[in-house]
Amino acid sequence: MRFPCSLILHAVTCCVALMLVVPGKAAAEELEVSIHGPGQQKVNMYLAPASSLSEENATQTPPLAAELYSAVEGNLAFLPFVNRISSEEILGGAEVGGVKAGDIDFKRFAMGKVDYLLTFGFRRREEGRVQAELRVFRTRSAELFVGRGFVINSPKQGSVAANRFSAAFMEGLTGVAGFFRSRLAFVRIREETRELCSSTPQGDSLKSHVRGQRHIMSPAWSWDGQRIAYVRLAGDRHELNVWDEEDGVRRMTLSGNTIISPAYHPDGRLAVSADPRGNPDIYFLEGDKLGRSVVQNWAIDISPGFDSSGRWMSFVSSRLGNPHIFLKDLEKNRVERISYEGDYNTSAAISPSGQYIAYSRLTDEGHRIFIHDRLKDTTRQLTHGPGDDEDPTWGPDEYFLAFVSNRSGRYRAYIGSRHGGGVKEVETGPGAVKGPDWSPELR
Amino acid sequence: MRVLSSCILSLLIHGLVFALVLLGPFQGSKSAIDLDKPVYEVELVRAPAPEPESKPEQEVSKGEKASQEEPGERPEAAKARQSPARDSGAEKIPRKSRAPERERKKAEKSADTQKRRTREKPEAPRTPTGDAVLDKALQDLQKDVESEREQDRTVSRELENLREQRTAAERGEAASAQREKLYASLVERRIKQNWRFPPVGGDIDLVAVVRVRVEPDGSVAEYTLVSGSGRSDYNDSVLRAIEETERLPEPPRDLDTISITFNLRELRR
After folding, report:
1. A34/B257 CB distance under 8 A
2. Which residues pair with B211 in a beta bridge?
3. Which residues of chain B have a CB within 8 Å of the CB of A375?
4. What is the ipTM of this complex?
5. Is the minimum CB–CB distance between B58 and chain A shorter than 8 Å?
6. Which site among A13, A111, A338, B216 is 20 to 30 Å from A120 CA-CA?
7. What residues in A contact B259, CB-CB < 8 Å?
């Protein structure tokens, strides 16, 4: 009769013991791993040589096709996130066998860690025209990523074609393409001549809009890309000018002697820093006259800049003694301080989204570009010279910035990413460059 | 007939005693099943500490001596005269409640005497069968109690062993979790360095999940895109990162599947 009792007791003991000793072991068999952000922000790309789409003339590349190919190469070199792979790095050779997917052995390129493969095909057309086909494939999936075809009959058309193709590739890769759909305005100084110029960010299609002996400064694009406002020194006072491609130049004489740093609000209004009361404050224009003040202070307030929503305005003010960067919420009429370090912070430039504010700070080594991230509330140094780095301006994609630097001995325009890499000089011809301003995306 | 009635009575008493023994532990069964606590029910029937056996015998012998001490007495007569002592023992049964242990001893002695008598005179008509059965039941009960106590000690030892095993298992689990955490970090680093993807504008965030099966030597045996990002080039990039990694560090034992979530955004930048 005792047996069942002890048996039950033992059974219960064993069950309890098993529950205690073996707690949910099965859950540990699948491991969860999270990776935040790629280890490399560059993709590998191989550019196959140009090849003829027709059998005849296969050995000679027409000059127009060669220039287009060269322009594409140059454009891709501006993208810091594209790492060009040479043919020597591809085991088994880099021969593609054709320009279409069916002609290409993608495995060789995938093995060589090539992410994207570009093919370029051309065909001579009548009257000196050239048909060009540009394709980019993803080597892993052997899928077409971007493909464009053009018929060109001039180098200018070739440049436009190269930009369009590059914009499509960049948009596919990053979701934004403003770099190849925008222009850079700047003042070029050659001996006694001052020019208001614009070019592509790569330095192509250079145009001189205004030329003269007088000082011109602070060009600023309108948000529709149709006008450029700038300041011209007329005698002993400043004059506000607006260049328009259709209407030419419109001159405005405002009250006060100092008119500096004009900037367009997204709604089309023009803001300037003027000193009708003796010290520079920031005003919106009403017609050709100064309207209500946006920032009025006993100190110097200059360099207004707006984000694409028009709510936020960055500016420079000496209200605390030294020039510092500030941000004004135009809806709530509140001002917040952005820069806290350094004794001389100038040239504020707010990014289109309003998240970033770039500016120039005088350091012991010279002027350097700094970026303040409003979302993360962090500030970091972007450039490190040598020389002075000044006048930052944001590209429409908010990935690139342009600035001027005298690192080569005279002031030239440079372009780099907001992460600090891939700085390249913009080829703008002879002369120094000052006061660059990047246009919005142009369609 | 008398034998039959004695047997029935004996069975009834046995049944009653065993029923008490069986049901006893289940009264207030919760405390009885609580294996973390010692079982104390046995205290109710704990056997007394051994007393000097001469004492009760002395009591009996005193009485006997007082009334029956005759030299040269025959053993048969002595045996015959033991019956009053046995009777007196029966009379003392009510005292059991006052001194149960002493009574039990007496009962045991009576039972022994009865056994001897039964062996010597199995047909003795005056044998008190109920007492013998009760004595035997008490002896059995004592054995049962001893056995139960031994079982309790065994169970306690087993529980102690199991607790020690559990502690060791918990320590092992903590070490195992630490190993897995370290391994996850190694996997993250190994794959991340092979993951290439350009910076994307705006606030776009992309997430893809790949399940990887690894061999014991760390080589990637199989991988599947479990959840795509919606962008084929992004999905391509994470799969390529796995392909180019080829081999991971040797996984901890029992680990053969890794679920890797690729987030485009850095945690801190």
Report:
1. no
2. B224, B259
3. none
4. 0.75
5. no
6. A111
7. 30-33
